[in-house]
Amino acid sequence: MSGSASNSAQGPVLVVDYGAQYAQLIARRVREAQVYSEVVPHDTPVEEIQRRNPAAVVLSGGPSSVYADGAPQVDPALFEAGVPVFGICYGFQAMTSALGGTVEHTGTREYGRTELEVSGDGGTLHAEMPGHHPVWMSHGDSVSKAPEGFTVTAATKDTPVAAFESVERQLAGVQYHPEVVHSPHGQEVLRRFLHDIAKVRPQWTTSSIVDDTVAAIREQVGERRAICALSGGVDSAVAAALVHRAIGDQLTCVFVDHGLLRAGERAQVERDFVAATGVRLVTIDAADRFLGELAGVTDPEQKRKIIGREFIRVFEQAARDLQAEAGESGEHIDFLVQGTLYPDVVESGGGSGAANIKSHHNVGGLPDDLQFELVEPLRALFKDEVRRVGLELGLPETIVHRQPFPGPGLGIRIIGEVTADRLETLRAADAIAREELTAAGLDRDIWQCPVVLLADVRSVGVQGDGRTYGHPVVLRPVSSEDAMTADWTRLPYDVLERISTRITNEVAEVNRVTLDVTSKPPGTIEWE
Ligand code: XMP
């Protein structure tokens, strides 16, 4: 299943990406205003944009100056196309140039929190907002003169034209970043552009996503059969639940227990997920096989490769077995369900493309004798939408709000060789950290909190009457919106103390608990 799950004749809002990190965030905010949106590259020709019949276009911020050599420009034809357009930051300036206004190097840069002064009655975008309120700025050039026929609705100390609009032409823009949380009225401004200026109907709701996706899956799969690998994670669980809602027992799920899971995860899949969905599930117990293959291996990339390879082999065999069973009744399994998300689609869809820092493993590269068509019901969705869909489908909170957990599991959270004993030690320490974070009500404040076992390091301690020579563990609590960047979470000292005391008391091999206070970049979230 490809393309959007957009839900009516109303086309998507297209967010034109000028190369800053903000385009995806803008697309998410547009969806929070209940309007379906997609990101497109800045060199998309106007004819292509028109062909998509967009409900509106948003020009995103970008790192460049409109005067820089090779700076991406906006084709003025866009403004003659009858499509409502909203310009943000760089997009605001590019729009100004294309429409005959003036952008200048004023020499004053505004960066970070800035006070916005609403002009006059604030127009449609800023009406009835506080006369002075904070917004987030990040620009060197400024608009000094709005294009002919536009009303200026806000300024700052250093920027005479910080927002303008022409309600009649359905064109508007702001110099600041309305999409970031540091602009507290930004979401309302974006909503007003979409609903009040562009007249886009708010139809993108969780129940419409479920209905449209279920219909699309039914159409794709028909009477045929599908298979889905469950990892225990949110994405595969929600993908499987959607496909199950669409085709019922034509779907079989396979759960490979590679022995690198955290405490309780297998039960979560076998008991809670099955209870919530009624899905047909086959569990493959492959812990010994994975441990055997990992024996003696310390290099993290090698671990990832081995785990990825073995996972595919085990899954392949399960698929063949199911295929053989299905074959007896004359039914072939034609489809493989994958939990690919929209950010993966945008990021692999070209553009500059992020460097492959770690080889993230997915079920892919299956051999030729297992040819599946892909069903990717989450291809159009962001993570927060996936979670809402999961709740709408009745999945338990424990699954829907589960922290992200890497495919190679605890295998990449043991620094050194992976052994059964070390896994047991880490599993126990990790369970304590999770329990205490949950008890303190902090689950929603952290993105994830890996616990890392420094298995090749020993440190001296005193426990009871004796000297110990145990291992340290590292707590790595991080806050993040998308795992691309992250900050270390300032956990309360009393919570850290409880985690530390319990781990050192209850987990025999661990005599030291340390805290990782590195942001990303420069540190990655996982240690390996
Ligand atoms: P890093 O460590 O690169 O992690 O900052 C970013 C996010 O990706 C997860 N992660 C992985 N997920 N296979 C996965 O499926 C992997 O090999 C892997 N490595 C990191 C990590 O948990 C974080 O959410």
UniProtKB/TrEMBL annotation:
Q: What is the lineage of its organism?
A: Bacteria, Bacillati, Actinomycetota, Actinomycetes, Pseudonocardiales
Q: Which residues bind ATP?
A: S231, G232, G233, V234, D235, S236, A237
Q: Give the Gene Ontology MF terms in alphabetical order.
A: ATP binding; GMP synthase activity
For this entry, the protein name equals GMP synthase [glutamine-hydrolyzing]
**Function field:** Catalyzes the synthesis of GMP from XMP.
A family per Pfam: GATase
* Pathway(s) it belongs to: Purine metabolism; GMP biosynthesis; GMP from XMP (L-Gln route): step 1/1
EC primary class = ligase
Q: Name one GO cellular component term.
A: cytosol
Q: Which gene encodes it?
A: guaA
Biological source species: Saccharopolyspora hirsuta
Subunit field text = Homodimer.
Active site residues according to the UniProt entry: C89 (nucleophile), H177, E179
The record places domain GMPS ATP-PPase at 204-402
The reaction(s) this protein catalyses: XMP + L-glutamine + ATP + H2O = GMP + L-glutamate + AMP + diphosphate + 2 H(+)
The UniProt entry, under InterPro entries, shows: Class_I_gatase-like (IPR029062), GATASE (IPR017926), GMP_synth_C (IPR001674), GMP_synth_GATase (IPR004739), GMP_synthase (IPR022955), GMPS_ATP_PPase_dom (IPR025777), Rossmann-like_a/b/a_fold (IPR014729)
Q: What EC number(s) does the entry state?
A: 6.3.5.2
Keywords for the protein's UniProt record, in alphabetical order: ATP-binding, Glutamine amidotransferase, GMP biosynthesis, Ligase, Nucleotide-binding, Purine biosynthesis
